């Protein structure tokens, strides 16, 4: 196929225009209106709310009207965006706001934003009250021998019901932060002594922890008080849009301008996808070939707690800082240095990582290959072709010019497969464990290297129309045994390929229990252009909306459930909260009619049972896998913790255990994931080789039995 640009959802444009005909627009003003001056929404803000509501109802793939259920979700999400740990609002505040739960939908449709202002002004009032309490508490002494605890899991927290309860929550919060600061200072000194180096206290070590905490609280207070009307609109409308699904968001005019500037100036970052979780900035995924990937220490599920510019710039505390502000701190020109303070999994010691910003070059994310030979200890020796594919890439500019030798993942993988034939390999392993997606066209074309024509994916848009997209090239580049290696980080286009291979019975999927589960596609709609159909339209912001959903040839969606592995290997990543199902209000899994397609005979039950049995037996007898299962159990225990002791000895003992556990987890992730080596022999990857060898042998026996 020449192009897979997502088809625009059809809708009655005259009706949409009719819906907008009563709206008169006032161009957004450049003047800033801080929270102190927030009295009421502007006329422009009210009209933008109407537009967003109309577009959501007409363009979102669910075709759901903004209703009472979504309204209740929006209020919940708005409160959570402001106060994720329930430290500021009283329960009485939340009870009072509940009168809006069933009316936000109608209010937004009518451009009424009063609820956002009512809730936000109360929030500012509560912040001022809490910071005043914290300032008083920080002048007092704390008894660290008392055996009491603090809630660390947001879902286990509840809003305080009285000033006394609120004060006690903050007392415990301060006590927790002081213990963390003391532990980290002791740990830095211990590590210096262990390495034989002279311990030189940093400026951070010498600073009074109480003064540092108060500065954080006051900085956070100041930041919220400087919120302008555009920021409040973005915060509130995104609470409304994400009630549909977590990928549908509103972008204010300022955010849209910043996005355009970033694209025009080619500013670079660290090569990591970030998300906000309960007031913290968390790494969702490290992008293969990016700066963080090359540096090698940043991992998914790491919490970024501070950012410093250059080799010696001040480490700025970013806890509770809005994600957009954090991104601005991290982003910069290629070649410049940024330092990140990170906590692995959000707990344990803060480590400082130094990363040189860089652009992800096509070469850095290109397919790499190697011929690997099995050891022959548990079966016959065999040559296996291994391909690591970090993304589905395409040099779009070169392809648009019809350049003869433009770069693409399909071309590169085809070249590797042709080379393998000369090497006499018995099977191919396609490693998609760190592949977060990319070009849909490439996913289809690359799947076509293994199947001889036929539908690869079906796409449903918001009018319910389902369109199949197929590999139209005859012939294949490899018709032998195929193993697709996946993890919970395999997303989007990766899931399309893995699912299609599974549906066609063309090979086996090996890895985590299931892939990421993102089966949707979004588009960015410039509100000014949508309304006035002109490139010179005023900047009213933008709506990123989910307008299509993917389905596999057999009709199953990859949404939320992902693609389930045929052969499951124990893995730490399976248990990380990094999948689509871990996001609030992710669209549900569903199905459409299956499309007619060929079935290959390379995924029979007898073959699968043979391979599963062999793998299970080896894993049971492997000390490495037994140790992995022990560490996974420990990780799950730590994840399920809802309370942490504030008694000093217990706190430090737990932190020591966590630091040791996090180091083990890092080693596990290093073993499970591809790295600078094309193929690295370790217990996990060697088991993949054993599975592949067993698969080849089982297919031989199957074919021999059929021949007889």
From TrEMBL:
It comes from Rosistilla ulvae. CDD domains: cpPDZ_CPP-like, Peptidase_S41_CPP. The gene is prc. NCBIfam families: prc. Pfam families: DUF3340 (PF11818), PDZ (PF00595), Peptidase_S41 (PF03572), TSP_NTD (PF17804). Residues 1-26 form the signal peptide. It comes from the Bacteria. SUPFAM superfamilies: ClpP/crotonase, PDZ domain-like. The lineage of its organism: Bacteria, Pseudomonadati, Planctomycetota, Planctomycetia, Pirellulales. This is Tail-specific protease. One of its GO terms (cellular component) is outer membrane-bounded periplasmic space. SMART domains: PDZ, TSPc.
